[in-house]
Specification:
This protein is 16% helix and 22% strand. With 325 residues, it is of the alpha+beta class. Bound molecules: the ligand Nc1nc2c(c(=O)[nH]1)N[C@H]1C(S)=C(S)[C@@H](COP(=O)(O)O)O[C@H]1N2 and molybdenum atom (MO).
Length: 325
């Protein structure tokens, strides 16, 4: 239980945004070559996969690449070392490829999120005044990308501490001007059976992957649209070219490779809730006191070795507990 890495989130004055230049000056720019060296490998257990494809960015679009690495936001830090990027990239949940966590990265190599002539788009629609379909150039132009280090906790009791690149989901939602009756947000993952072998080999799952949040959760400052990890565009296995990150909830509430976001009035169904409602309820906030029906949630295994206590709301209670009062 040593090595308790606590999040530190400095309070932000409402409505204050830093422009990219100020950030670059204040936080110090991290050079492209330094990104790997900045995150020393974990001390034991897994041997990192040594394959050049492992960390390959999912998209090569110049407009996106030039924004990496994004400046660090010093308000969102973790105490202690981060997870080795090679361990995080070689142990994944992305059932569209396989349930074998050690092989997701390999099978995901055939996924081409943004091929020439068929650019990735995200449709943001539903109860809003300005529904819009964004391509990736427009997604990254919407708000300055920044890096935040977050704890990440899978419901299966493994965890990692990683630097995401992205911006707050509220930036994307506000861009379409939500209506007052928008109370929930739905998310859909891409459905590409030809590139995602797990879809056809597991026909009993309700593809495509879908998730949902309450509007207040989606608008919360901790909830990210992530386009990168460890200072580079997301590799395919982490959900290229963009995913959602909700650090106080179990990992399945952070859907990958998003193609559609819809603002709705009623609580939407979610993939895992549909599969096993008693095991994966809609809310799914990290809670050490509530065991999964088949295992304890009191502690968690860190990728790279070691165990630590699970924290309520994954350590973010000071910032999110009020949402559930
Ligand atoms: N589309 C999609 N998104 C998904 C999943 C998935 O299977 N498909 N798995 C979820 C689960 S259970 C976890 S723990 C995280 C894992 O993210 P990582 O592989 O980038 O660490 O992705 C989440 N998002
Ligand atoms: Mo998970």
């Amino acid at each position: 239980m040593a090595d308790l890495k606590l999040p530190r989130v400095e309070p932000t004055p409402e409505g204050v945004y830093y422009n990219r230049r100020t950030f670059l000056k204040q936080m110090g720019f991290v050079g492209a070559a330094a990104w790997l060296g900045a995150y020393p490998p974990g001390c034991d257990a897994q041997t990192p996969v040594d394959d050049p494809r492992l960390l390959r960015p999912g998209i090569k679009r110049a407009e996106v690449l030039r924004l990496f690495p994004a400046p660090r936001n010093a308000r969102y830090l973790l105490d202690g070392d981060l997870t080795d990027p090679r361990l995080a990239a070689a142990y994944n949940n992305f059932y569209e490829f396989t349930t074998d966590k050690d092989r997701v990265w390999l099978l995901a190599q055939q996924f081409e999120p943004d091929p020439p002539g068929r650019p990735w788009t995200v449709e943001v629609t539903g109860l809003c005044h300005k529904p819009r379909t964004f391509d990736m150039d427009q997604v990254v132009a919407l708000a300055p990308l920044e890096e935040r280090t977050y704890r990440f906790r899978c419901v299966e009791a493994w965890a990692m501490d990683v630097p995401w690149t992205g911006y707050e989901l509220n930036r994307l939602l506000l861009a379409v001007e939500p209506m007052s009756d928008a109370k929930y947000v739905r998310f859909w993952t891409a459905h590409r059976p030809a590139q995602m072998p797990g879809i056809e080999s597991q026909p009993w799952y309700p593809w495509p992957y879908f998730e949902g949040l309450r509007m207040d959760e989606a608008m919360h400052a901790l909830t990210l649209v992530a386009t990168g990890i460890y200072g580079r565009p997301l590799p395919r296995q982490h959900g290229a070219p963009l995913r959602i990150v909700v650090p106080w909830k179990y990992g399945y509430k952070s859907p990958k490779s998003i193609v559609k976001i819809e603002l709705v009035a009623e609580q939407p169904p979610t993939f895992w809730e549909k599969v096993a409602p008693e095991e994966y309820p809609f809310l799914s906030n990290v809670n050490p006191a509530v065991p999964h029906p088949r295992w304890s949630q009191a502690s968690e295994r860190l990728l790279g070795g070691g165990r630590r206590a699970t924290l309520a709301y994954n350590g973010y209670g000071a910032y999110v507990a009020r949402l559930y009062a």
